[in-house]
Amino acid sequence: MFSCNTSTSGHSTFLLTGFPGLEASHYWVSIPINLICAFSILGNGIILLLICTDPALCEPMYIFLSMLAASDLGLCASTFPTMMWLFWLGACELPFDLCAAQMFFIHAFTYVESGVLLAMAFDRFVAIREPLHYATILTYSAMAKVGAAILVRAVLLNLPGPILLRRLLFPQISVLSHCYCLHCDLVGLACSDTQINSLVGLVSILFSLGLDSSLIVLSYALILQTVLGIASPGEQLKALNTCVSHLCVVLIFYLPKLGLSVLHRVEKHSYPALAVLMANLHFLVPPIMNPIVYCIKSKKIRQSLLKHFQHKRVDVF
Predict the structure, then answer these.
(1) pLDDT in tens, 10-36
(2) Which residues, 6+ apart, have CB-to-CB distance to 179 below 8 Å?
(3) For the range 124-133, what are the long-range contacts, defined as Cβ-Cβ under 8 Å and sequence gap of 24 or more?
(4) How far is Cα 176 from Cα 160, in angstroms, rounded to an integer?
(5) How far apart are CA 301 and CA 61, in angstroms?
(6) 317 pLDDT more than 50
(7) Phi, psi (5° rounding) for residue 18?
(8) Which residue of 41, 82, 95, 293 has the lowest C-beta tally within 10 Å?
């Protein structure tokens, strides 16, 4: 930890942190991270391509899935550059402005993904609760408004963060806890009063991840209530099966965040490498797993993917 005696505002340099004790092996650590990055971009890119080009996938569920894939690509673009910078090139210095910009985009795309997961939960609720009115409730216009609202909320909730950080004093050199910049990490390194920053960060989380997760739980409670009211066990199973993909994606998104939060509050300093691994996984896992889950569980996406490759084969021959 560097001294606050030479603190500055807006001109600090931040040092990225890799895996403690494995500094000599960062080159090898970068190989699986590179592979995860490549497969995440490829998987989400394929999902976007299929949904944009296949008329059979122009349904609300798949349009929301395309939004999820786009937010995953944004999250990859926000986090992977500094990971590669550190693990592959060995560079660990990051200027204040670049760090603040990365912080904004990481949190913004995280909030977008959380909002899209809530929209997908609402989609499943309407599909099960009001199947006859599904097409009239979730119109293209309604989905566009939902997407715009999610994006605007993410920007408005995250815009005060970087602005308020500029008024804080930091040591000329500060060591981050991760290989990317997060709001809570930067606030913890400041040498001046951070009460306003902490309050803004708390409000931001409550009105994004906190609100979304609560409404997702409420949606599934109402879905379960509706399903239990169906007389046929076969129809009950069929209705619940339409929610499996979304439920898996929700768990993939929220469980690593919960695990990291618990680890930070229990014994973060006793297992620093584990804390860093969990911190990286909660950004690495969702982008690579979401396309896999939907490719496995969605018959329409598998059919569209197969049809696309068959057309490519025919074109080649």
Answers:
(1) 678 898 887 766 667 777 877 888 899
(2) 16, 17, 18, 82, 83, 86, 87, 276, 280
(3) 124/61, 124/219, 124/223, 124/242, 124/243, 124/246, 125/219, 125/222, 125/223, 127/61, 127/242, 128/223, 128/226, 128/227, 128/239, 128/242, 128/243, 129/222, 129/223, 129/226
(4) 21
(5) 11
(6) no
(7) -95, -135
(8) 95
The span from the CA of 142 to the CA of 213, in Å, is: 22
Long-range pairs for 307-311 at CB < 8 Å and ≥24 separation?
307/54, 308/49, 308/50, 308/53, 308/54
Per-residue model confidence (pLDDT) at position 91: 75
Q: Give the residue among 37, 46, 9 at the shortest CA–CA distance from 309.
A: 46
Is 250 within 8 Å of 230 (Cβ atoms)? no
Length of the chain: 317
Taking only the tens place, the pLDDT of each residue in 146-155 is 999 999 999 9
pLDDT above 90 for 107: yes
Angle between helices 140-158 and 96-129 (to 10 degrees): 150
Cβ atoms of residues 157 and 204 within 8 Å: yes
Looking at 31-40, 48-57, 183-192, 303-312, which range is the least confident one?
303-312
Do the beta carbons of residue 191 and residue 172 sit within 8 Å? no
Q: Which residues pair with 141 in a beta bridge?
A: none
Q: What are the tens digits of pLDDT across the range 270-307?
A: 566 677 777 788 888 999 999 999 988 888 999 988 88
Q: Is the pTM of this model over 0.90?
A: yes
Token pair listed for 190: 């400041």
Q: What is the mean pLDDT of the chain?
A: 87
Which alpha helices (H) appear in the chain, and where do they start and end? 26-53, 60-87, 96-129, 134-137, 140-158, 160-165, 183-189, 195-205, 211-228, 233-241, 244-265, 272-297, 299-316
Helix (H, G, I), strand (E, B) or coil at 165: helix
Beta strands 173-175 and 13-15: pairing type? parallel
- Chain position carrying tokens 């913890």: 188
